[in-house]
Amino acid sequence: MGSQLLAPGTAAARPTSDGVQAAPAPAPVPAELAALAALPEVEAVLDQLAAVPNFSAIAPPAATVPAPPPAATVPAPPPAAAAPVGATPWTAPTSQPLAVAPVSGTLTSAFGPRWGSSHAGLDIANSIGTPVYAAASGTVIDSGPASGFGLWVQVRHEDGSTSTYGHINETLVAVGQRVQAGEQIATVGNRGQSTGPHLHFETTDPAGTKVDPTRWLQQRGVPATDLSRMA
């Protein structure tokens, strides 16, 4: 009987045709009262009240199903740190040299006065077929026959200066071709007005004035040890 609640506020009993009074209809009970009725100490009292005449029993309301706990939320990842203002972006290192000695060999004639005239370049002696390299990166502006040199290659560099490779035995590049510092462009020869196999190496500044190739190379980072091999 403890599971039932007697409602003193129910309607009065109604007589039937046979003189027997019908049971009164149960009255609605607030949810708070029904919850109170579920307590053990209250159930004992309700069992006693159930025996009192003219009280109707009602079933307690259905148990309430608790709502499921909210789903756990995954915190958003922190935003990526912004690069400092003015920071220089990282670039992969490169092993490409700015300039190289154009050939190995023996320096037989330097830049400057020679035999009562001016020698405009370096003469570097070596055997025919020795590789000749572009002294710096640039674009080939001439490749082929040349008066006095027999055969030559000329390269214009990024700063507007030029380098010339004369008396070569053969050219390995064409006009308009892009070459890198240290790339082979020709071989040592003995063509034109030459006293023996060697490379005649000339350089000019951006204005077209011929300058000492030794200084031109040093200004572009060619180590002194590389130049000493031509001595």
From TrEMBL:
Is Hydrolase tagged as a keyword?
Answer: yes
Q: What is its EC number?
A: 3.4.-.-
| Keywords, in A-Z order | Hydrolase
Q: What are the protein's GO molecular function terms?
A: hydrolase activity
Q: Where is the M23ase beta-sheet core domain positioned along the sequence?
A: 118-213
Q: Which organism is it from?
A: Rhodococcus chondri
Q: What is this protein called?
A: M23 family metallopeptidase
Region (Disordered) location: 1-25
- The top EC class is hydrolase
